[in-house]
């Protein structure tokens, strides 16, 4: 039967009623992407699930399953987000609500104080490591499943250790690749692992490597800041060069303009040096032309004869003057000549400076040889 939101609102507003409505079950898993999820074998509608999830967030009074002096509503926060879920996951699966007390590193789930006690005496889980969440200061809960699986056989857990190859093995490994090797149980060989020289050295190595890597990261960030500052300085210098160019160009422009005025004045003077003579000659010839036209139109032959004889030597003289002026005539121009063009400027800009990336070795603390290299060296010896 399909559940609807309307049907859900008719029920008592409790997580348990919603979970058991119409005989269906909702189980919650707080460590699958940090979300509560439905059981795959008895799904319910999204509306029911949403309402249950909403009520789950509003629950403030867990039931008696965790009402002990040890059980506290403990939450370790990282950046405002809870590190562990506040509810016991086994109790969730039993449709109960109880507050988180501990974290089982093997099961990778939260436990209330009651489940924690049962976990420690149960034959199957008594070897598990359960830690009170109040004592855990790490940023994330340890997830053993991320590294207990065999690399060669991902569906198997590692249970043995090969002393010859220094490798963790599963049952399939020891039956195939490591049949002739000296194999020991991890349970036996790991009894004092946390006090071993290898574990202690790893703790020191990781701490130092983390510090060195952080220092390297900080140096990268500082270098990036320096590059940004260098960009600003270079941009400022380029702007200063532009100001220098502009000022220099203005000086050159002013110099050229003054020179142009000087040359123009000289050119105009050269053009006008014979202008008075030409004007006088032009006026005289205009007068002679007017007289000849008047006599031709209105005078007698006598007037024409007399005028012709008077003007003949005068006209010959004017012709000589005109020929002399023509011989001295020149075309006067002013011209600007330069070798500076677009190509010249393009090439000139190249020699103003260069912008290059400089790579300089930085003296940093040398990283010690890795554990793998150290082990290999020992084997070679």
From TrEMBL:
Q: Which residues form a coiled coil?
A: none
Lineage: superkingdom: Eukaryota
Q: What is the name listed in the Swiss-Prot or TrEMBL entry for this protein?
A: B box-type domain-containing protein
Which Gene Ontology terms cover its molecular function?
zinc ion binding
Any idea where the B box-type domain is?
91-133, 145-186
Key words, A-Z: Metal-binding, Zinc, Zinc-finger
So which residues are the signal peptide here?
Answer: none
Is Metal-binding among the key words of this record? yes
Originating species: Mytilus edulis
Pfam families per UniProt:
zf-B_box
């Amino acid at each position: 039967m399909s559940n609807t939101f309307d049907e859900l609102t008719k029920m008592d507003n409790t997580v348990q009623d919603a979970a058991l409505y119409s005989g269906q079950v909702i189980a919650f898993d707080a460590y699958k992407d940090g979300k509560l999820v439905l059981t795959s074998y008895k799904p319910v509608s999204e509306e029911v699930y949403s309402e249950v999830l909403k009520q789950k967030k509003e629950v403030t009074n867990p039931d008696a399953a965790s009402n002990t002096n040890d059980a506290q509503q403990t939450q370790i926060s990282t950046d405002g987000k809870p590190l562990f879920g506040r509810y016991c996951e086994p109790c969730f699966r039993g449709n109960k609500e109880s507050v988180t007390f501990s974290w089982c590193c093997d099961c990778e789930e939260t436990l209330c104080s009651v489940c924690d006690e049962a976990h420690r005496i149960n034959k199957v889980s008594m070897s598990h490591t359960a830690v009170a969440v109040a004592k855990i200061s790490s940023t994330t809960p340890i997830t053993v499943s991320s590294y207990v699986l065999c690399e060669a056989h991902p569906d198997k857990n590692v249970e043995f250790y090969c002393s010859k190859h220094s490798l963790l093995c599963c049952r399939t490994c020891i039956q195939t690749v490591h049949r002739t090797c000296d194999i020991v149980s991890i349970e036996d060989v790991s009894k004092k692992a946390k006090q071993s020289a290898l574990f202690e050295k790893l703790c020191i190595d990781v701490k130092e490597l983390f510090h060195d890597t952080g220092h390297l990261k900080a140096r990268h960030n500082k270098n990036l800041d320096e590059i940004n500052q260098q960009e600003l300085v270079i941009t400022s210098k380029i702007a200063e060069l532009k100001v220098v160019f502009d000022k220099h160009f203005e000086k050159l422009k002013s110099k050229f303009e003054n020179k142009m005025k000087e040359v123009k004045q000289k050119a105009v003077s050269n053009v006008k040096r014979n202008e008075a003579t030409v004007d006088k000659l032009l006026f005289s010839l205009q007068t002679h032309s007017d007289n000849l036209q008047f006599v031709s139109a209105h005078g007698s032959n006598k007037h024409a004869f007399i005028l012709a004889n008077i003007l003949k030597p005068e006209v010959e003289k004017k012709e000589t003057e005109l020929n002399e002026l023509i011989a001295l005539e020149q075309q006067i121009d002013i011209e600007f000549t330069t070798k500076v063009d677009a190509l010249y400027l393009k090439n000139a800009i190249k020699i103003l400076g260069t912008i290059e990336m400089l790579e300089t070795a930085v003296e940093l603390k040398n990283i010690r040889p890795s554990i793998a290299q150290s082990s290999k060296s020992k084997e070679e010896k």
